[in-house]
Amino acid sequence: MKFGVVVFPGSNCDHDAFHAVGHVLQKPVEFIWHQSEDLHNSDAVILPGGFSYGDYLRTGAIARFSPVMNSISKFAKDGGLVLGVCNGFQILLEAGLLPGAMMRNSGLRFICRHVHIRVEDTNSPFTNVAQKGQILKLPIAHSDGNYNCDEDTLAALEKNHQVLFRYTTPDGKDDNAGNPNGSMNNIAGICNRERNVAGLMPHPERAVESALNSEDGLVILRSMVEALVGTARATA
Amino acid sequence: MATAQTEIKVTPEIAAEHGVTRDEYARIQKILGRDPNITELGIFSVMWSEHCSYKSSKVHLKRLPTRGKVVVQGPGENAGVVDIGDGLVAAFKIESHNHPSYVEPFQGATTGVGGILRDIFTMGARPIAVLDSLRFGEIVAGKETSEEDAAKNRRILDGVIRGIAHYGNCFGVPTVGGEVAFEPCYSQNPLVNALALGIARKEDIFLAKAKGLGNPVIYVGAKTGRDGIHGASLLASAEFTEQSQQKRPNVQVGDPFTEKLLLEACLEAMKTGAIVAIQDMGAAGLTCSTCEMASRGGTGIEIDLAKVPQRETGMSPYEIMLSESQERMLLVAEKGREHEVLDVFKKWGLDSTVVGEVTTGGLLVVKDHGKVVAQIPAHPLAEEGPVYNRPIANRAPRAESDKGWFKFAPEKTDLTANFKRLLASPTVASKRWITEQYDTSVRTNTLAGPGASDAAVVRIKESEKNGVLRALALSTDGNGRWCFLNPKVGAMHAVAEAARNVAASGARPIAATNCLNFASPEKPEVMWQFSQSIDGIGEACTALATPITGGNVSFYNETLGKSIDPTPVIGILGILDDASKVLKIAFRNEGDIIVLLNGANSSGAGPHPTLPSARQREFSSSEYSKTIAGLVAGEPPAIELGAEKWLIDCLVALAAAGTIESAHDLSDGGAAVALAESCFASVPAELARPALGATVTIPENASAEYALFGESGARAIVSVSTTKLAALRATARQYGVGAHEIGKVTRDNSLRIEYKGHTVVQSDVSALRDVWANSLERIIVGK
């Protein structure tokens, strides 16, 4: 199996995703330059966090026009696994691969601290290794993490169990106190209807070693590995 | 040779407007053999400004210790470089951006960060951490500060924080530490000192020496505009007057996205092997980078301004040469290999053009469309600026405080209420509200971010050997108040505190950088403060074996005659041989024993004054005295460098052996604050669980306030499990450090401090933490 980590001008967390997959999980991983339409035979693609194009215009608004996004669209349509983290999530929203939009944090400031998110659904290649209701402690670092969408979209997301992660208090309560940015319904991460494309604002790749104060991010990455192993077995 | 005709004729008045004195003008005439034209005058004025030439500080800076076993590159290049083992080096430096941050807080601070980052990656090192040492006027109205001034200071603080966050976060480097302090003297002269750290392989370090006749000189990065002209010579090299607002166009404007591209492109281009030399364009832009690279290389440089990418039309040679537009670098490539370099910058979407070439003859020749508009010998311009030995006045004897010294409260007084006031005071209170606006964990190297340990600690992934990683620790410290009271002792304390903070994280201090913030050097009293501070820094850095590898001097921090306190800020770098041994300040286990380590040993001999009046005099310089009694007077605590060194070595040894559970040095607010902070950190605030508490009895033979809040140095509070107590005692003995068991860590959410049999502080930890953690937010946001 191989992971691809896309690098846009301004991506910062590409190195972190690379380290998490390649060094901590010990899986093959390559960088994919945004100008390339070649995904290097990746089985899973990560769009990392950062400030692609300096967040000019809107976060992710310009990156979604990069040549690599054509291939990723096709890859996603064909069922390939795509994970967008933070800016990556924003890019997927702008590209229409996930529904909704990100707005400025309700506090109007950049915020970097640990949050707790609850796994809402384990029936996805991003959460299959987790327990339903499991609480993960992950860091956030963003100015624009306030997830928004229209009523119908929100209803559909909830109905179809597309909300994968929700902000909670440390002990798992649905309290606004646990929501750092004002996201609708405390949504921290979602997937598409086909469940092969996901995005979340917290950074799993920053929570993969105890030295970094949490290893909970491994749950998400290991789920992807598990899903790929499963696919490989199924097609073997 | 014919110089191009320029519109403006240089007159003595014009020279004076440029900050060039009559003597300096005569020097210019001598170097050129004629009068300068306006472009040449502009060039000299920036290169010989205080900010760029260090003309008032050079004679004193010479006295600093700059050599050491680990020093690969000392002062003189864009940053200092030290060997950190296994073929790796660290490049680090601290720099100021004070005046622009007053005029335009957001852009001033943001470009300060941008500038120091460029100084690091121009050496070939990827920046991995940023720290900020910030000083503002009071943000709460009081005796010396009106509500209007307090509101203004809050606005400045807010702009500065957002500016730092904007640049560091977008660029992708974690802002992992620093300090924020508040004193009335910084009201119209805030201090914004930014430190950056980068890592490289030793053989990949680049210097800025233009060499190779005919080698192309290449400009890369953002286009040149009119921003920041005279930022160095007029903004940073002069004090503020009523006309300060008009200096707004002198403030540079930053774009961290472009700098991120510049970083990646530069590092990639450096790998091609086609780059001979590279320097960033910071203060004095094209002027500084061209003449300095030529001067260091013993060569000349010729450029044609017509080739310089410009984002505004009709710019004159004067404007182009003096522009301080950000995010630009100048490099020299090997002739014939230009395209390897240009292709890399094209890939990253940056402008890159050949603008000139390296020559012999040592001249900086500036052409505009082929016509020479300036021609100046590079070495005299860069290195032979005026050097002043400014008059120093022995200080007038300080008037004794007319109110007398701090009066200690009677025995048995409950100090809890005063303690809460101290914890809520902006200098002591938690900086959480500030640091949560910084990305502190990008690059996944941060082992100890703001508030977790006494120093910021980042691991070095490249250093991995047999599963063990090394880490680097950094701390920035200063104390303007103490330097005001006694510049030499205050400066020594700055060095000692930074080194102690590094040691309290488990790391061995190895090198230092300094940012010297002072008022006008034309005032003999200020030069006396400066000279004394240099003496103090030199003595302390020698005793603690932390040579100065580089830094920055910022003079003219004063407005309408009102000066800042002399404020040398020291950044110290340390190495942790095993990253897993990092020490943090939080108590960890109920039942652990709390031990007060004292480098001056336990006998009471050493720096502690024994006479009551001497203690009052010393305590009058403390944070408690200022906050509770409104009194700033007396003398900082005496400092004993030997004691500081023993404590540092002891802490490093304890960390390496894994003997202790936590360590926190004593500084602002003394032992009581250190204890409280170790309790606060024991459990993250957002968890529902209460923090660990402590019950302690402070040993001392003086008043309770002195014992709890006194700030004498060479002390730290550590916690240790009962099973390792004997090992701790043995290590302390080995280093001649006193170890007093003062109490235990508890699980009852209660902090109780006893003194001479009486309870002098008793409170729920959560109540204290609420005050400490939310004070800044309540003051600034009003929440």
Structural summary, described in words:
The complex is a heterodimer of chains A (236) and B (783). Chain A has five helices and eleven strands. Chain A is an alpha/beta fold and 236 residues long. Chain A has a single domain, classed as Rossmann fold. Chain A has a nine-stranded mixed β-sheet with strand order 2-1-3-4-11-10-9-6-7, sandwiched between helices. Chain A is globular, with a radius of gyration of 16 Å. The model of chain A has no long low-confidence stretch (mean pLDDT 96). Chain B is α+β, with helices and mostly antiparallel strands and 783 residues long. The longest helix of chain B has 25 residues. Chains A and B meet through α1 and β6 of A and α8 and α10 of B.
SSE layout:
The complex is a heterodimer of chains A (236) and B (783).
Chain A: E1 3-7, H1 14-24, E2 29-33, E3 44-47, H2 67-77, E4 81-85, H3 87-94, E5 101-103, E6 111-119, E7 135-142, E8 146-148, H4 151-159, E9 163-168, E10 187-191, E11 197-200, H5 217-235
Parallel strand pairs in A: 1-2, 1-3, 3-4, 4-11
Antiparallel strand pairs in A: 5-8, 6-7, 6-9, 9-10, 10-11
Chain B: H1 12-17, H2 22-32, H3 38-47, H4 50-53, H5 58-61, E1 71-73, E2 80-85, E3 88-96, H6 98-103, H7 105-121, E4 126-136, H8 147-171, E5 175-182, E6 191-201, E7 216-221, H9 231-235, H10 256-271, E8 275-280, H11 285-297, E9 300-304, H12 317-322, E10 328-333, H13 338-347, E11 351-359, E12 363-368, E13 371-377, H14 378-383, H15 416-424, H16 432-435, E14 446-448, E15 456-465, E16 468-477, H17 480-485, H18 487-504, E17 508-517, H19 524-543, E18 548-554, E19 558-559, E20 562-563, E21 567-576, E22 593-598, H20 612-619, H21 623-629, H22 641-657, E23 662-665, H23 670-680, E24 693-697, H24 704-709, E25 715-720, H25 725-734, E26 738-746, E27 750-755, E28 758-764, H26 765-780
Parallel strand pairs in B: 4-5, 9-12, 17-18, 24-27
Antiparallel strand pairs in B: 1-2, 2-3, 3-6, 4-6, 7-10, 7-11, 8-10, 9-11, 12-13, 14-15, 15-16, 16-21, 17-21, 19-20, 22-25, 22-26, 23-25, 24-26, 27-28
